[in-house]
């Protein structure tokens, strides 16, 4: 990374459909809490045109002894992570209406803060075991996707923002973590930690872990207990482990679906030929032919 050039990166996450286990929104909340000294709220989107209040209700709260109504809103905070890197975070409920207008408002704020890159976070329930690293899917705006592997289906506001931003020339990245579906809808600190690690690796910085490792260990212990008391669930998790281990091995070998790279094919051919050669060398006569089977000798 060229430290002489300052970067500003927008990281956005939204509560709701895109936020299984609250891992995506939890990642931004973790950053804001861990970097509280360096962060400040700088902007917001008033949500009255964007929200169905029967779905995302206003909240009553008491502040300094006085009752107030807190209306749904999306807030932007700036975090000066280093002299060469600023994070602009976008956090709030997923809007119900006028997604294109909402995306344009988000991008106007990104433009005002001279954002260089936009990263949207998401989390989804999936068939993955809690005993293995949680998979993270990352797709950038310049990726050429295989039609057979690319996702086709419903999308949320993170995808709309990514797509709109890429059309306007922004560098974008979509980052989704898979959460074990059998653990329920409670907070998943393991998913938060996985996204924080992936973000840090992408940005080239060490993001603070805080109490995430401790909370992740507690979460895993709770999941272990859940599985241990249910034989069917235990069998299901073991099958998921086998499937993921197999996929990891294939990824390490470069195997993709039914396609096997030529290097792997050649290796398999060499090993097969060596095995057959070893068989040809066992139990053969000096002329390389099988000896006569045991039987009655001549004259018997």
TrEMBL record:
- Domain of life from the UniProt record: Bacteria
Q: Which InterPro entries match?
A: Proteasome_assmbl_chaperone_2 (IPR019151), PSMG2_sf (IPR038389), Rv2714-like (IPR008492)
- Chain positions covered by the region annotation Disordered: 276-300
The record's section on SUPFAM superfamilies has:
Cgl1923-like
**Protein name, entry field:** PAC2 family protein
């Amino acid at each position: 990374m060229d430290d002489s050039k300052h970067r500003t990166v927008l990281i956005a996450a939204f509560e709701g459909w895109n936020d299984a286990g609250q891992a995506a929104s939890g990642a931004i909340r973790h950053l804001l809490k861990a970097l509280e000294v360096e962060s400040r709220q700088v902007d917001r989107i008033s949500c009255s045109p964007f929200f169905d209040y029967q779905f995302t209700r206003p909240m009553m709260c008491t502040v300094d002894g006085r009752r107030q109504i807190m209306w749904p809103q999306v807030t932007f905070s700036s975090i000066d992570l280093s002299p060469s890197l600023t994070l602009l975070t976008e956090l709030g409920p997923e809007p119900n209406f006028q997604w294109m207008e909402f995306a344009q408002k988000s991008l106007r704020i990104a433009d005002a803060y001279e954002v260089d890159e936009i990263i949207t976070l998401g989390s989804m329930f999936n068939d993955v075991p809690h005993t293995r690293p949680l998979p993270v899917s990352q797709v950038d705006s310049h990726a050429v996707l295989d039609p057979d592997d690319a996702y086709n289906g419903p999308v949320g506001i993170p995808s709309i923002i990514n797509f709109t931003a890429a059309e306007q020339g922004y560098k974008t990245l979509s980052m989704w973590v898979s959460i074990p579906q059998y653990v329920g809808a409670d907070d998943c600190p393991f998913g938060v930690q996985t996204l924080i690690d992936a973000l840090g690796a992408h940005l080239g910085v060490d993001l603070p872990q805080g109490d995430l490792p401790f909370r992740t260990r507690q979460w895993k212990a709770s999941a272990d207990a859940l599985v241990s008391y249910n034989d069917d669930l235990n069998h299901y998790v073991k099958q998921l482990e086998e499937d993921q281990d197999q996929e990891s091995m294939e990824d390490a070998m470069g195997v993709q679906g039914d396609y096997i790279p030529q290097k792997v094919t050649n290796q398999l051919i060499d090993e097969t030929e060596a095995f057959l050669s070893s068989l040809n060398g066992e139990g053969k006569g000096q002329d390389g032919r099988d000896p006569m089977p045991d039987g009655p000798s001549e004259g018997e």
